[in-house]
Design brief:
Distance between the termini: 35 Å
Structural class: mainly beta
Mean pLDDT: 90
Oligomer: single chain
Number of strands: 27
CATH topology: Methylamine Dehydrogenase, Chain H
Order of helices and strands: HEEEEEEEEEEEEEEEEEEEEEEEEEEE
CATH class: Mainly Beta
Radius of gyration: 18 Å
Shape: globular
CATH architecture: 7 Propeller
Low-confidence stretches: 1-29
Largest sheet: 4 strands, antiparallel
Strand order of the largest sheet: 1-2-3-4
Number of domains: 1
Strand content: 35-45%
């Protein structure tokens, strides 16, 4: 990765509150991490939101200071969750049904809810080092994975009660594994994928037992990824770049995008309707299965961090470093 690309990565992570010192990097001030319950605050709606998903019909969004926002009316109104055991930044959230979900974040925290996000319990943390977790995926109520900084990959088979560390292999010809793992997701066949640095996508075709690297031909970082309903894979990130694979990740082609603003989230709204969001208030849309994208830019140039669908004929909800944005 060249220095200009690295600078953009660091800028986004700092803006998103997910930057930790690199391994071996000297720091004048060592952060003292202390886990405390999240406070219920009036400014919750204007706090930075980094992850959003559906728990059945409910919308669940997570972000700074352990804030969890819930909406039962398609985003017209939100309220703060009743109880969250950590006040560290939450970076991602995932549900398997309307009740059960997990959120991850700074301090290596993993929290679980069984009531649709109203209350959460701490399952894991590591305050010895600020090694953030960036993404979490569960294939069912028992088995799941979480990934993060410095090649961190965790695996559970008991719903998150215990987590084991997965030793990520280094790419071919290298001695060390990819440094940062940004987004984990699965395709309809159950294959697992992780969007990584240096244009790489990790892949497992045997339920996470073994991992290999797919080389897309790109040199920058991928911060987000998705499998469409038809199995097409999309990964996006630095400088508005989106790569697409229609053969389970064996080969990748760059999609046509009109902006160079780095991308932070991608969703599929309806059949072959794809929306991606990113820095500088940029929103991209594709109606041809991710081959080409059109785009627009908000006049306020807000840093868009997450997007969620709220139904047909209704604009998706956009979240940012300043919380939920109005259309």
């Amino acid at each position: 990765m060249n220095e200009s690309m690295k600078g953009l990565v660091l800028a986004l992570l700092m803006a998103a509150g997910t930057l930790a010192p690199e391994a071996g990097q000297a720091s004048d001030v060592k952060p003292q991490l202390r886990l405390q319950p999240a406070e219920r605050v009036e400014a919750a709606m204007s706090s930075q939101i980094l992850g959003v998903t559906h728990a059945g019909k409910r919308i669940v969004a997570v972000g700074d200071h352990g804030i969890v926002l819930l909406s039962d009316d398609d985003g017209k109104t939100f309220r703060q969750a009743r109880s969250v055991p950590v006040d560290s930044t939450l970076t991602a959230v995932s549900f398997i049904d309307q009740h059960t979900g997990w959120a991850v974040g700074h301090g290596g925290v993993i929290v679980r809810t069984e009531d649709g996000g109203e209350t959460w319990k701490l399952q894991r943390s590591d305050t010895s080092v600020d090694q953030p977790i960036f993404s979490v995926y569960f294939k069912d109520a028992n088995e799941g994975w979480a990934v993060g900084l410095w090649s961190l990959m965790l695996h559970t088979t008991d719903g998150g009660a215990t987590w084991s560390t997965v030793q990520v292999p280094p790419p071919a010809g290298q001695k060390k594994a990819d440094r940062n793992l940004y987004a984990i997701f699965a395709d309809p066949k159950g294959n697992l994928f992780v969007a990584c640095e240096q244009g790489r996508v990790m892949r497992s075709t045997d339920g996470g037992k073994n991992w290999t690297y797919a080389e897309t031909g790109y040199a920058g970082s991928f911060w987000t990824g998705i499998s469409l309903q038809d199995g097409v894979l999309l990964v996006g990130g630095l400088r508005g770049t989106i790569y697409r694979s229609a053969d389970d990740g064996d080969s990748w082609q760059v999609a046509q995008t009109p902006f160079k603003s780095s991308l932070t989230d991608i969703i599929e709204v309806a059949g072959k309707h794809i929306i991606a969001v990113g820095l500088d208030g940029v929103t991209l849309e594709s109606h041809d299965d991710g081959v080409t994208f059109t785009g627009k830019q908000r006049s306020d140039r807000s840093v868009l961090t997450a997007v969620v669908d709220v139904g047909p004929a209704v604009p998706p909800l956009l979240f940012s470093t300043s919380g939920l944005l109005t259309p």
